[in-house]
Model the fold of this input.
Amino acid sequence: MKLDFEKTDGLIPAIAQDFATGEVLMLAYINEEAWNETIATGRAVYYSRSRKKLWRKGEESGNVQVIKDIRVDCDCDTVIFMVEQIGGAACHTGHRSCFYTSVSADGTTKELSEPIFDPAKVYGK
Done:
């Protein structure tokens, strides 16, 4: 499979979705190097836009994502990583999913879940 990194200036969206439940866990980006390492290792590797380097999911927290399947869209410029989320939490805030906030039609927000871990303890920040 040849992904089209040129069309999007080298980065394409990668959605992480729980393989067993279908829950969307997070959205990140991959470059060609992250894609190749993901394929080679069977673990999710992303490109951190803020740190400008590869981000091996779970390298600090231990909450790795084991690839179970990968879906590629029709334009070859977006992927879905179907993963087994080890450690229970995908989000750096300690929540299972990065999508833990609901916004209603009137604009009010509601947090849908509690954090699984304390990020200050895990990341020391």
Summary: The mean pLDDT is 95. The CA atoms of residues 46 and 52 lie 11 Å apart. The chain has two helices and eight strands.
